[in-house]
Amino acid sequence: MAEKLKLYYFDGRGKMESVRWLLAAAGVEFEEEFLETREQYEKLLQDGSLLFQQVPMVEIDGMKMVQTRAILSYIAAKYNLYGKDLKERALIDMYVGGTDDLMGFILMFPFLSAEDKEKQRAVIVQKATSRYFPAYEKVLKDHGQDFLVGNNFSWADVHLLEAILMVEEKKSDVLSGFPQLQAFKARISSLPTIKKFLEPGSQRKPVPDDKYVETVRRVLCMYYDIKAN
Amino acid sequence: MSGKPKLHYFNGRGRMESIRWLLAAAGVEFEECFLETKDDLTKLQKDGSLLFQQVPMVEIDGMKMVQSRAIGNYIATKYNLYGNDLKERALIDMYVEAVIDLNELLMTHAFQPADKKAQHFATIMDKATNRYFPVYEKVLKDHGQDFLVGNRFSKADVQLLETLLMAEECKPDILAKFPFLQSFKARISNIPTIKKFLQPGSQRKPPLHEKDVPKLMKIFH
């Protein structure tokens, strides 16, 4: 019997979305259990499934993995999306670190007040266009290859595409000064597994809405205000 | 040219301290270039040394590495502190990521506004003693081995020791209810490279003092 791969999270993006992207990119099927109620979460806590009492949690290869970064690294290594040697891994880790930081600005966006949302939107766009996008634009321009690292599809490419699309949701023309990234986006989006994930009906989650925010608050009893960074 | 790794950061712990710990644990000598003023940071940014305009940055093996996790992963792999296989790496990553979460709380404590400090401190103590420490206590108790993963010294042990010591700086008796962590702390502190790093005169940095915060804010803001 094949060991099932199962994701435990809310029915929304949050920190689990990068995991969904990576599994999809690798062409790996997965199941999902969505946390809707406090009781579900408490049950997971009580049966010791959540090492640090937190989700994301992924059942994979007999482990109950937690900590998003650990999960992503494991999947990347297992499905050959982590470069071919130590130096390529170093580059992938650096690039993923940058896109992780960028997406971090977007992560708490749904939980902000309307006023803070506008401020944060400006912060996201500013960081994307002055700090992160220029770095990746230069990497692609300098080596002229299709993929960020080692002329091979890797986790870094998946993560960057995810980040680009998320920032575009905040400002649709944000790539206008970045021709390499525009070509990169088109190229990676048309890879068969990615293309499939981008189609309606896939396990990709939509932009978080109020219902998502309400679910998270209810399940985690997280009723305090979130401030933008 | 020395060939030693060169660390670029301010003269303090921050996000570079875990890297100092790891290099020291591996017995690797390193040099440091301290940012004292905003101009020092600007210079690095302008000469293209910082991929995302940020420090930490470590010159190592012909690369200018940024992103503390990337740097830590590279050093750990290079010096065999990252387990024997994929599953051990998974465990090390899980344990280290959680410690990083706790470190974030400890690190940002000095920067909290005065009216938030007490509450922040309470949060740190609560998370340390109810969420994080019990996990490592149980791991050590369950397998009865000297090290967290694979019966071998790894990055996870180094990072955990670093965090235990930082937590004790905040509350000296914080390990009172964790006998396995107490003996872990003693055991890992006694490893020759670690012992050396814990002695005065090493490159280990002291805790941030409130009076240093304004100077730091000037460099980074």
TrEMBL record, chain A:
It is an enzyme of class 2 (transferase). The keyword Signal does not apply. Residues 85-209 form the GST C-terminal domain. Residues 3-83 form the GST N-terminal domain. One of its GO terms (biological process) is xenobiotic metabolic process. Keywords: Transferase. It comes from the Eukaryota. InterPro entries: Glutathione-S-Trfase_C-like, Glutathione-S-Trfase_C_sf, Glutathione_S-Trfase, Glutathione_S-Trfase_N, GST_alpha, GST_C, GST_superfamily, Thioredoxin-like_sf. GO terms for molecular function: glutathione transferase activity. Its EC number is 2.5.1.18. The keyword Lipid metabolism does not apply. Belongs to the GST superfamily. Alpha family. This is glutathione transferase. It comes from Pelecanoides urinatrix (Common diving petrel). The lineage of its organism: Eukaryota, Metazoa, Chordata, Craniata, Vertebrata.
From TrEMBL, chain B:
Residues 85-208 form the GST C-terminal domain. Its EC number is 2.5.1.18. The keyword Transferase applies. This is glutathione transferase. It comes from the Eukaryota. Residues 3-83 form the GST N-terminal domain. Keywords: Transferase. The gene is Gsta1. Signal peptide: none annotated. Belongs to the GST superfamily. Alpha family. InterPro entries: Glutathione-S-Trfase_C-like, Glutathione-S-Trfase_C_sf, Glutathione_S-Trfase, Glutathione_S-Trfase_N, GST_alpha, GST_C, GST_superfamily, Thioredoxin-like_sf. GO terms for molecular function: glutathione transferase activity. GO terms for biological process: glutathione metabolic process; xenobiotic metabolic process.
